[in-house]
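Q: I have two molecules that I believe assemble together. Could you output structure tokens for the complex as a whole instead of separate predictions?
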Amino acid sequence: MNSVNNPAEMVVPRVQAAIASAFGEEYRETDPVVRPSQFADIQINAAMALAKKVGMAPRDAAARIVEALDLDGICTAAEISGPGFINLTFDGTWIEELLNAASPGAPAVPAAVAQRVVVDYSSPNVAKEMHVGHLRTTVVGDSLVKVFEALGDTVIRQNHIGDWGTPFGMLIEHWLEIGEDSPAAALLVDDPSAFYQAARAKFDASATDADGSATDADGFATRARQRVVALQGGDAETFAVWQRLVAQSKRYFNAIYSMLGISLTDDHIAGESSYDAHLAQLCQELEERGIARISDGALCTFPAGFTGRDGEPMPLIIRKSDGGYGYGTTDLATIRYRVRELEANRVLYVVGAPQNMHLRMVMATARDAGWLPDTVEAVHVQIGNVLGEDGKILKSRSGAPVKLMALLEEAVDRARTVIDASRPELTAEERAVTARQVGIGAVKYADLSVGHDTEYVFDFDRMLALSGNTGPYVQYAAARIRSILRKAGVLERYTALDFADSDGGRPATPIAVVEPAERALALHLLEYGATLHKVREALEPHRLCTYLFELAQLFTSFYDQCPVLKSEDSVRESRLALCALVLRRLSEGLDLLGIETPENM
RNA sequence: GCGCCCAUAGCUCAGCUGGAUAGAGCGCCUGUCUACGGAACAGGAGGCCGGGGGUUCGAAUCCCUCUGGGCGCACCA
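A: Yes, here they are, computed for all two components at once.
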């Protein structure tokens, strides 16, 4: 961890020096166990663990550390309490120095080792509705990507859309039958699942008789199957139709991304189809090298450590007995491409948790084949299932499906109702803009603020809530600051500062940390960089949500207790500068979550 | 049967590589109410952290086990 002016990190070497001085050099590398504290600014917990090793009572060991500890200029108190905790209180002057020295535009120094990271996220299916489950991978992936970029990594976004496979015969035939320009075809953009289900219904009706036997009286099922063969066989006309079909779905995806403010574009699309040309060669290579073998007519790999129902090795099928390829094959081609062509040294799959075993098998096979060297880290960022109120996984086909676009529109409507009532002086257009920012912010924050790997029960009201631990709460704090700065006539000056310039980005007036509320705010501001590094390492955007919510809380508390505009002279200037810094952090943080900061709300 | 994930306040969720009386939001109760924008602030009630063992000076956190959920286990993706 290497953040800008983080007090806890700056204390560590001093504690290590004290431990070495007190107990000998061999203990210098001991973890000093510096932790947040509810009784002081920070606490050191190393004494208890060390006590046993050095044969002392924990409190005596703590006393020895304190004796050797040089806290000159950074702490005003070091007290031993409880079994041997060392509580440190930072020197207010030091906090002021750190706060004023920090270039506001450089909240976190870049990662020590910048990485070239491929992030696979969103990945919706062509001609299918994006449901609330897709929302999570899209929003989490987009936030991770932004944090990486903020810390200096090179990011390559990959939207692995489902645009290939057997359903496309059915979809293409259906599309041609109803006419590409028909209202029914327009469903592809407006209501994809309805389109898909119409095609599916037609296929099922054609493929089976009332008693379940195969009939295909009208020949639709047969034509659909032939169409798959034509598509995968490279038939030019079929391919052209398929391209138009996919293009329609891209319009739908982009409508969602645009509504959500997601940074994915068509340039990031690398769908399953794009690997099709490499599958045959890939299978051949694996078979020749003895990594894959025929089993029950299918070409499979059997990576170590995976067993199925009967305790027998579990296969990863890479070529079906009918000669076709499945997603295992494309996933292998994909991972090879990401390492070999995209030169990634970190590959992230922001994908649903149910895919875990499959992805691990793909990674294991890729390792066996040498396509995924040990120097490249591959991680499945598991997205937990979204459950219905019955505790079962929320499926788009079961019960009352929650359509993503409908959810987003409802969110904006609710925000609109609130702002129409509270800010009538704004123009209709301004209110519409803010309503969109707030409504979408609420939905995204709701999905980002919980651990990405835990499944959770979908709660319509929770996702659309505008108060409490929500995106709008954080946005509101920022809007209030803007209002204060505006009234003081310094909004332009502060927002126009070149924060990337270590001199020019510094507020003209130093921030004085006097009141408890100011002190709490200042300390929390200094945790920003460390928070971003944790998000990057643990791949957990929800930590940033927690940080921003706490920052907003600390600000509103400060706002309540410390008058800004009513203060005078240097106090007023200092508090304005503090407000400006908080605003900067709030809007930066929200931006990394993919959430906009409204001008007014 | 094997594997992955989960079980924390009435509800929805946090709790960082184990640290001192377990946190937040919502809901409920009480205050602030001519307010630098109340989408707010201050305070209160409410939990033997699913059960049981173990490791440790110390466990919501690590290990084992049981119970109860979710998901995945060969030609859909």
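A: One point stands out. The two ends of chain A are 36 Å apart (CA to CA).
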